[in-house]
Model the fold of this input.
Amino acid sequence: MGRKTTSNALTVAGGTATAPVANNNTSTSGNHVDKAGKFRQLAERRVTQALRIINRIGNLSNKSSYEFTAEQIGKMFEAMRNELTEAEDRFNRAVKPRQLDFNL
Done:
């Protein structure tokens, strides 16, 4: 009946992002996880994966290993901002998913 709070931490450049996580998956039958619990579980996993990938994209800024133009960087971040805005809009209204391929 009680809520157990744990902390998931992700180390990113310049510090650590920490978010408290409530673990209160209620069950009405067997292994059935309620919709809120399922959302929480998937959201935590997917956002953590996205943060790690974004961190790895930042590693591409190493000029001793990579060569790039300001135009390429602008396109990368514009594509990511657009997709993030699109994902957020989908929570507020029904929006058809867009193409997810990126090419420079």
In short: The chain has two domains: 1-66, 68-104.
